Amino acid sequence: MLTRRIYFSQLALDARIGILEHELRATQPLHIDVEVDIDISQPVNDHNIQTVLDYRLLRSAIVEECTQAHVNLIETLVEQVADRLFREFAEVRHLKLRISKPNAFSDCAAVGVEIQRSRND
């Protein structure tokens, strides 16, 4: 089966995440990088968005999942986002998802967690 990759690079948002006292009181920035491989089920019609997976829908699901509630661990959040993308988008076959905290440490650009998952895993 043919696939197409949709990706987001450093999608930036503020989320309630963490177990430290200051993380429990305020949001903090997250950066999200995701690559989503989808099945190509029909040719692209340049005049019909219905012939492709609208990446606005993917973005909306990612943002909502990351901002709807406080999550203690980034490992939990990355799993929740992956689960949601597989649940809501049947055409997703494989994804690579990285969520990072750019302000976690002053001596590095970011720290985070990355997973790769396929629908059949």
TrEMBL record:
Q: Name one GO molecular function term.
A: dihydroneopterin aldolase activity
All copies of the Dihydroneopterin aldolase/epimerase domain together span 6-117
- The reply on keyword rRNA-binding is no
- The catalytic activity of this protein is classed by the Enzyme Commission as 4.1.2.25
Which Pfam families does the record match to this protein? FolB
Output the SMART domains linked to this UniProt entry: FolB
Recite the UniProt keywords alphabetically: Folate biosynthesis, Lyase
**GO cellular component entries:** cytoplasm
InterPro entries reported for this sequence: Dihydroneopterin_aldolase, FolB_dom, GTP-CH-I_C/QueF
GO BP field: folic acid biosynthetic process; tetrahydrofolate biosynthetic process
What reaction does this enzyme carry out catalytically? Answer: 7,8-dihydroneopterin = 6-hydroxymethyl-7,8-dihydropterin + glycolaldehyde
Q: In which pathway does it act?
A: Cofactor biosynthesis; tetrahydrofolate biosynthesis; 2-amino-4-hydroxy-6-hydroxymethyl-7,8-dihydropteridine diphosphate from 7,8-dihydroneopterin triphosphate: step 3/4
As for what it does, the entry says:
Catalyzes the conversion of 7,8-dihydroneopterin to 6-hydroxymethyl-7,8-dihydropterin.
Q: Which NCBIfam families match?
A: folB, folB_dom
Similarity comment: family membership = Belongs to the DHNA family.
Put simply, this protein is called 7,8-dihydroneopterin aldolase
